[in-house]
Structure formats: C-alpha cells, structure tokens
Design a protein that fits this description.
Shape: elongated
Radius of gyration: 33 Å
Structural class: alpha+beta
Largest sheet: 5 strands, antiparallel
C-alpha cells in the first residue's frame, strides 16, 4: 500500500478534469530565459488549484450506484430535518434554540442558562469525545453522508448546475457554457435558495416566531437583524456558488483532525493496491511475456466522480470525505470487465494489508467508557440542579454603618435567577444570627418570569453588641419560591473591631 499522504502524488496523479477521464495539463510553457521549475511546483498542492496558481473548477461525474442511492435518500431526509428542527416543539419550547444575546440554550425542550457551567462543560466534552469515537470507528462518514455542506452541495446545488450545464443525470464537463440568461437564471435560483437556507439557519439562533415577525415587518424596523440576514445570505451564496468544495479542503478543520482521531483500523474508503497494481488498459491481444496486470484498468472513473478532485489510488488523503462515489464508479467498471467488485471499498488500512479487522481496541473501549462517565456526571448534575440560583453580592460603599441606637447595619444584594419553567415568587427570611432583622424592599415577595434575573437590595440589622470583637458574624438567609423549593445562602456580616 502506498504511504499515507495529505497531498496528491504529482507522478501518479495527473491534472485531470473531474468531468473527463483523460489528463488535461494546465502547465504553462516557460518563456525563454525562465526556469520551468520556478513556474510549476514539485507537488500538486491542492486538488482545486492548478500548478500555475489558478482555480481548478471541478465538474464531478455522477455514478448512480448502491451507496449513491442510499446517500440520496438520506440527503433529502436530512434536508427536511435541518429545516424542520427549529419548528419542532418539546414541552412548548423549540427542539433547538441557541439564543446567544439572551445567553439561553434550549436543547430538546430544556433551557440551559449561563449559570449551568458544569452542564455546558460536560456537554461540550461529551460532544468532542463522541466525535472522536465516531471517527475512530466510522472515519469521515459524517462528512460524506450527513454534513450540511455536503448534503446541500450534492443534492441541491449540483443538480441545479447540471440542469443549466446540460449534464442532468451524469455530471461531468458542461455540454454548454453557462452564459447569458442561463447565468442570471442560475444566480437567481442560487439567491432564492441561499435566502431560504439563511433564514432556516438563523431560526436556530432567534427562534421561528421572532424570525417570522422580522420577515413580516419592514427592514427599517429591525436594521441590525436585516443586515445579519443579508450577510448570512451572501455568505451562503458565496459558499455554494464559488467556494464550494474548498470549504471542506481549506476551511473545515475536521479533515486535519482526522490524523489524530483515526487509527489503522478506522473505516476509510481505500483502494486495494495489491489487487489493482500494476494498473493498465485491457488488451485484446496481450503482448508475449508481458507483466500480468492488476484489476485496475486505469479508466480514471474514480477521479472523474470525486467531488474533491483527488485520486483515491494514491492512498489515504486528507481531502477524502468518504462519499463512496469512487466505490460506485469502480464497481460499475469491474462489473463491465468481468472482475470482482471491491477494488475500491469501505475498508481499513490494516485490512488492505491483509490483517484481520478488529472493532475492539484501546480507543474504541476508552472513548465509550469516557462517554458513559460524562453521561452519568451530566445526569447527576441535572438531577441535583436547583430550580433557582441565589448568590449574595456586596454593595458598594462602606461595608457597614451604625444606626441611631448603636445597631450595626450591613447592606448587600442578593442575585436571584429563576431557572424553572414557570413564574415564581420568592420570599426571604433570616435564620441566623438570632435577634437580627432582615429588611427587603418587597416584603410580599419578588416575582420573576422563567429565566429572569433580579438583584434584590437587602439589609441585615444586628443589635448593639451583637457583632463579636473580631468584627465578623456569620448570617444565613433562607430563600423559598412559590413551588416550595428552598435554598440557604451564607453571608459574613461586618462590624467594628473592639
């Protein structure tokens, strides 16, 4: 098997247009007196970059094999799911709402507040461990099968391109250039779809009700929101019209993370080097004493269908997103030439080298154990979480003052956060020290809506001589909501030292 690389081998991988199976060199001829080595790099650095630095546009052909059909079904289901998630309600709340300005995150009907730091930290760590586990087992299946970038690109925007290019159902190099009215019509469709996707994306962050209100009103009434929507639409249009597969190759960090998350038994799309080499065209009249050829017939179909423009025969590469288009294309060719399928297949590096497959290995045992521990900790923190938060805060100015009768007054504040799903009324009472009084602005109780926060000024008055000689006295205040939940906060009262 050839060595693993994150670049294409300049010897075995010619510059091939993804819509054809024949090499198409883009190398500029050196002018007199120029050094050819200075014009062309020694390596084909990026599959979407020609050797002279110009953009290489990819026009992948389409191979409608078994995995492509499954991917298409999943892709259209996911498009519906991506759009529907903000509209789904659980217990009257959105399934997912990431309200960043309000610092509230609603997941599966439960709202997390900024004070839920342990829960949010456990959720983030659990997400990273889950990604590492899925990658260790399934490689980059997410990228090729479920990533929104791939799903929208392959099953929404590329079909539109093929409609205007005259290559519906097969892909490849356009039969006609997209000029004139076709160009403007294509841009118009892209713009409408980008607007729809931008609004669907923003619904995850502002909610469907707020988004609908903005859409029905004039942009003058909400200029900032309108600019955000316009900017998101432009970003979507730029991504799918121009940047395209380069988001996976350049911007997305996941391809670079895979080098530390994969091992030699992780699932990859691999070319069976031992079976396929040496590659060559099938000859009707083989030459005498010629070296036997492998199963690869050097048709170039695996390169022609690749949406990232790589040659899978060069080994495991960072640009491969495990979409399996090369598997479908190669299997189709193998059937036509009467050879076994699976020359390119879902496999692992060890399997390609003839070693047995093993699901159980250190990382596939450690990651689930870590996930289990994180899940137990998350459930434990969630189960013991109070329905409200209460925290004492010192007020500005002098820490204490004397009353006309010599009593000591400590003024401070109590911050209360309603974490429940219903409006609550909060009352306070002083439990200690004995003989002291608690004064609050609203003796009948503080009313808070779900998720609301209030800072309540309070004062504890200690009789003359009630503060010890060291000038410190502990106090306990019990806070109760209208549902019967209670919390006790401790505070250190200050006074003169004797």
């Amino acid at each position: 098997m050839p060595p693993i690389s994150d670049r294409n081998d300049p010897v075995s991988l010619p510059v091939i247009d993804a819509g054809t199976s024949s090499p198409a060199s883009s190398k500029r001829v050196a002018a007199p007196g120029e050094s050819d080595s200075m014009l062309s790099p020694d390596e084909h650095v990026l599959s979407t970059l020609e050797r002279d630095g110009s953009r290489r546009w990819l026009y992948p052909s389409l191979s409608k094999g078994r995995t492509w059909r499954w991917r298409r079904v999943l892709g259209y289901v996911l498009i519906v799911v991506f759009v529907a998630i903000p509209h789904i309600r659980v217990s009257g709340k959105p399934l997912v709402l990431l309200d960043i300005p309000a610092r509230q995150f609603t997941l599966f009907g439960h709202t997390f507040l900024p004070t839920d730091t342990p829960l949010l930290a456990l959720a983030m760590v659990g997400l990273f461990v889950a990604i590492a586990l899925v990658t260790a087992i399934g490689g980059r299946l997410w990228c090729g099968w479920a990533c929104p970038q791939t799903v929208y690109m392959e099953y929404l925007f590329r079909p539109i391109d093929r409609l205007f290019e005259g290559t519906v159902g097969r892909g490849g190099r356009p039969k006609r250039p997209i000029t004139g009215w076709r160009r403007f019509a294509r841009w118009g469709i892209y713009l409408v779809l980008s607007m729809i996707l931008a609004h669907s994306f923003l619904a995850y962050f502002v909610g469907t009700e707020q988004l609908a209100s903005w859409m029905r009103s004039s942009p003058v009434d909400h200029p900032i929101a309108f600019l955000v929507m316009a900017g998101t639409t432009v970003a979507m249009l730029f991504d799918f019209l121009f940047f395209r597969e380069q988001l996976c190759l350049i911007a997305c960090p996941y391809g670079r993370f895979q080098s530390v998350m994969l091992d030699r038994r992780s699932l990859i799309v691999g070319y069976d080097y031992n079976r396929g080499e040496p590659r060559g065209k099938i000859r009707k009249r083989p030459e005498p004493n010629a070296e036997p050829l492998g199963d690869c017939v050097a048709c170039g179909r695996c390169v022609a269908v690749c949406p990232t423009g790589i040659d899978i025969r060069d080994g495991l590469q960072m640009e491969c997103v495990n979409c399996a288009q090369c598997i479908d294309a190669c299997n189709d060719v193998m059937r036509k030439v009467g050879r076994p399928e699976g020359l390119i297949r879902y496999t692992s590096q060890d399997e390609l080298e003839g070693k047995p497959a093993r699901l159980l290995r250190p990382r596939t045992v450690l990651y689930p154990l870590l996930l289990l521990g994180i899940a137990i900790a998350f459930v434990g923190v969630l189960a013991t979480k109070s329905s409200f938060d209460a925290r004492p805060l010192r007020a500005g100015g002098n820490p204490f003052s004397r009353g006309p009768g010599g009593e000591i007054r400590n003024a401070f504040r109590v911050r209360i956060v309603n974490r429940s799903e219903a409006p609550q009324t909060y009352t306070m009472r002083l439990e200690s020290p004995a003989g002291a009084d608690l004064n609050v602005t609203d003796r009948e109780g503080l009313q808070l809506e779900p998720g609301a926060t209030s800072i309540v000024p309070v004062m504890v008055v200690v009789p003359r001589g009630g503060i010890p000689s060291d000038g410190q006295l502990g106090a306990s205040i019990r806070i109760e909501d209208s549902s019967g939940n209670e919390r006790t906060i401790d505070y250190t009262l200050l006074g003169p030292r004797i």
